[in-house]
C-alpha cells in the first residue's frame, strides 16, 4: 500500500551524515516529491544517488501563500497509481517550522499511511543544548522585524516563560541575527536566560546559553549571517 514519507533534509552544508542510512535509502528509491523548493530538493535527491534520473522524477512545490491544489493533485495522482510520495522541507523536518502539514492532513483524510523519518530538527537540537526547560516549551516562528516591536515581543515571551514555566523558541532570518541578540540583551531581565544556536550541525556551529547579566559582562559576540534559533528561558536544574 502506498505511503507518504516525511523526509528530513540536512540543516547545514555538507551534513549528509546527519541523515541515517535508512532515510537515504528510502529517499533514493522514490520518484514523486512534494517540496518546499524544487531546486533545493533536486540538489538534495541528486546527492543521494537516486535510482532514477532526476528529469524523470516529479517535484511539485507547495505554494507559500496560496492553496496547494497542485501539490494535492500530485499526491492524490501518485497514490492512485500505487506510488509512494516523499515530502521534503527546505531544511530540517517537514511540517515542523516548515510547510507541508496540509499534505500530511490530506494523507490522513485519504487513509494513506504517514511515515515520519528520523533526521535533524534545529528546534529540538537547540532546545537539547540550551540547558533550559525541555519539558514545557513553545515555538513562535518569526518575531517583529523592527527593534521597538521586537523588544515588546521579547518581553512578552519572557512573561510567558515565567508564567508558564515554559521555554520560548523563535527564529529569524540570518541577516537580522545580530540585531536580535542586541535587542534581547537590552530588553530582557538580568536573570532571564537567553540562548543562541546557530549553524547547527555545520562547520560554524555556535551554541551559547547564558543569563542576560552574563551576556552583558562578556565580550561582545558578533553573530555570523547564518540560520539561528533563539531561546528565552531559565536554567533548568
Describe this structure in words.
Helix 6 packs across helix 7. This protein has eight helices and ten strands. With 237 residues, the protein is α/β, with parallel strands linked by helices. 35% of the residues lie in helices and 22% in strands. It has helices at residues 21-29, 38-47, 69-80, 101-109, 122-128, 147-164, 177-187, 212-217, and strands at residues 3-7, 32-35, 58-61, 85-88, 113-116, 137-142, 167-172, 193-198, 206-211, 228-233. The chain folds into two domains: 3-116, Tetrapyrrole methylase, N-terminal domain (Cobalt-precorrin-4 Transmethylase, domain 1, 3-Layer(aba) Sandwich), CATH 3.40.1010; 122-233, 2-Layer Sandwich (Methyltransferase, Cobalt-precorrin-4 Transmethylase, Domain 2), CATH 3.30.950. The strands form two sheets. It has a five-stranded parallel beta sheet, with helices on both faces. Strands 6-7-10-8-9 form a five-stranded mixed beta sheet, sandwiched between helices. The mean pLDDT is 94.
Amino acid at each position: 500500500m502506498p505511503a507518504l514519507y516525511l523526509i528530513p533534509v540536512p540543516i547545514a552544508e555538507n551534513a549528509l551524515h546527519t541523515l541515517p542510512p535508512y532515510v537515504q535509502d528510502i529517499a533514493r528509491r522514490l520518484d514523486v516529491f512534494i517540496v518546499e523548493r524544487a531546486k533545493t530538493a533536486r540538489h538534495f535527491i541528486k546527492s543521494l544517488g537516486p535510482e532514477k534520473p532526476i528529469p524523470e522524477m516529479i517535484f511539485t512545490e507547495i505554494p507559500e501563500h496560496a492553496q496547494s491544489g497542485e501539490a494535492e493533485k500530485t499526491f492524490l495522482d501518485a497514490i492512485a497509481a500505487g506510488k509512494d510520495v516523499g515530502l521534503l522541507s527546505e531544511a530540517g523536518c517537514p511540517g515542523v517550522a516548515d510547510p507541508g502539514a496540509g499534505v500530511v492532513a490530506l494523507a490522513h483524510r485519504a487513509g494513506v499511511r504517514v511515515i515520519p523519518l528520523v533526521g535533524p530538527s534545529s528546534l529540538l537540537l537547540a532546545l537539547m543544548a540550551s540547558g533550559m526547560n525541555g519539558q514545557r516549551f513553545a515555538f513562535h516562528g518569526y518575531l517583529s522585524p523592527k527593534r521597538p516591536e521586537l523588544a515588546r515581543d521579547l518581553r512578552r515571551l519572557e512573561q510567558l516563560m515565567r508564567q508558564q514555566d515554559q521555554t520560548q523558541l523563535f527564529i529569524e532570518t540570518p541577516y537580522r541575527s545580530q540585531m536580535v541578540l542586541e535587542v534581547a540583551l537590552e530588553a530582557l531581565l538580568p536573570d532571564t536566560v537567553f540562548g543562541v544556536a546557530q549553524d547547527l550541525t555545520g562547520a560554524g556551529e555556535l551554541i551559547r546559553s547564558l543569563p542576560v547579566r552574563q551576556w552583558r559582562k562578556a565580550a561582545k559576540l558578533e553573530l555570523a549571517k547564518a540560520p539561528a534559533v533563539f531561546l528565552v528561558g531559565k536554567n533548568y536544574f
